[in-house]
């Protein structure tokens, strides 16, 4: 413990960062006692972690599991070892996916993508799509359109027919939804000719863009819109701790690989693969790691409530707890 640096920044707006020197013990400590007979500040809950195992487990098909949701953004987790039973068309949002594990064929009117772990793609608003997963899991991010890519693609969707080995045409529906694709917000569901739907790719010039990170330490930004930003972060072990305080956005982190300790003004918590955590705007935090690790970082300029059940919560700061984290 001692003097550390804190970076004060904006995530969703262009503005210069500020660098502030801090006494680390005071930065993490609870406030001094209030000498007045009125309550001057609120009690705040510690950071909460949602854990969903990355180990595949056979389960019947079910809708994606909601993790965080507001009126402007939705984050879901899904696992599949089968076809999705319908095509889906969003009225109001772009739909971004991140492949966690396994293999998934994404079939759309803009072509077919064979997804592998570590890959992103964005389905523009109004484009019909379906999935065929094999012992896989992926994340879904629904954000108001239009969302734009922040990096060049690794590859694009292709016209593939049949879309995967063993595919056969059969009766299938198309569901058109609003309200971030949330279950129960379908507008119309009707039968669709699947071969004709997939053949639409021949008439389209646009293709899905498949993005991946650089593999270098630091942040690789993937997508952004006026109130949303999504990227990946790679961290290497380091003895130096720099705190960051984001003024304009809640941040959600999803641990992809490796382990680290998140140190914040709302407590200290260990994070491993499959862990989600939300850091409210205005909270200073840093990461301590003894091994290389990678996580997703998502910023929302609107409050982004957790809707999944909490798995565990952060522990209160103590000087002894922080000292034990020294590499």
Describe the structure.
With 327 residues, the chain is mainly beta. It is built from three helices and 25 strands. The chain has helices at 24-28, 194-199, 319-323, and strands at 3-9, 18-23, 48-51, 65-69, 74-80, 86-90, 93-108, 111-115, 120-123, 129-144, 148-149, 155-156, 172-177, 186-192, 209-211, 218-225, 228-235, 242-246, 250-257, 260-264, 267-271, 275-279, 285-288, 293-300, 312-313. It has an eight-stranded antiparallel β-sheet with strand order 11-16-17-24-19-22-3-25, with no helix packed on it. Strand 7 and strand 8 form a beta hairpin. It is elongated, with a radius of gyration of 22 Å. The chain starts with a strand and ends with a helix. The mean pLDDT is 95.
